[in-house]
Amino acid sequence: MHITNTTAAVVTGGASGLGAATARALAAKGAKVAIFDLQRDKGEALAAEIGGIFCEVNVTSDDSVDAGFAKAREAHGQESVLVCCAGTGNAVKTASRSKEDGSIKHFPLQAFDWLIQINLVGTFRCVAKSAAGMLTLDPGEHNERGAIVMTASLFGRLCLQHRARVGVVRHVEQALRPADRMRTATGDLARQRHGGLVRVVRQPRDEAVVQRLRRIEFARGIDQLA
């Protein structure tokens, strides 16, 4: 699939970090980019910089995502590219003892649900709605109607201190995406004679760095047990 000045793209979490870099890269190739994010100031500034459009979107809400796609499509037409970068994390221990009074408390489960709703359900919400829109497009040179890219995190393979919850969520994302949803989404398009591509992209990893971090975290764990 070639990115041209007729390509409409949506980047979730596009106001900062990996999403912002993705939005800039797509715009540099000529794509018309819609940025989905909750960070209005950053999103609007970036949209002005790259000649795109900002859509204030909460990926945990059907209505918000629908409104975002409607605004983006009204401005740029049906997107043929979706890149999912929206995600978050938190740094709270699974269980801990208060330094003040010695009381024990566990990780708040509503915070874990919040992670699931954004990183996992929110991602697939955007994928499903974008894929449905792509089915309305005519096939391209290689019979493709669009490309969907889902990013994942190193935390899916490496659980650092206070990041166990993020690791679980990211691991589930990585497990579901390549094994089930990627094949299912691609198969759904193919069975209906609608070309499409769904791809999982993980951040590059340096094995030496990963192993060093694991050794550090293991040593910390031993110290805490002692």
From TrEMBL:
A single MF term (Gene Ontology): oxidoreductase activity
Keywords from the UniProt entry: Oxidoreductase
UniProt KW Oxidoreductase keyword: yes
Name used for this protein in its record: SDR family NAD(P)-dependent oxidoreductase
